[in-house]
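Suppose you are handed only these lines of text.
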Amino acid sequence: MDNQQSEQLLQRKGLKKTKLRHALIQHFIKTQHAQSYADIKQALMEATDKSTLYRNLTAFEHAGLIHSINDYSGVTKYAFGEAPIQGNEHAHFVCECCETVYCMDGLAPLQLDIPKGFRAKRVQTIIRGICADC
Ligand SMILES: [Zn+2]
Ligand SMILES: [Zn+2]
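From them, the structure of the protein bound to zinc ion can be written out as follows.
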């Protein structure tokens, strides 16, 4: 994705275009697995302070550009694409060896039988194992 495409993406999501946001989009597309705040900060190497980066990640998440993953490590990870909500479910694979978190897009959606009166907003499936790189 080039700058023009990421610009269109930001525009479509109603987000203001900034250099940092462009860099964030490029980074999420380039990386094949979920990123922690530390991963992102390290990769961008920009003089961006903690709160600015968090604010942008939150804005991205609200806009559906990225989704956050709780892998129970205590460190939130972020991955490109919309959150696995109903109709868009995908599982996450956590490697027990290298601790990398992957979105498993190829998995069939979970068939959830939610009782009447309940409203599912977010589905989180975590698969633990050893990844292809380990
Ligand atoms: Zn691994
Ligand atoms: Zn994911």
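What can we learn from it? The beta strands are 35-36, 66-69, 77-80, 91-95, 101-104, 126-129. The first helix runs from residue 3 to 12.
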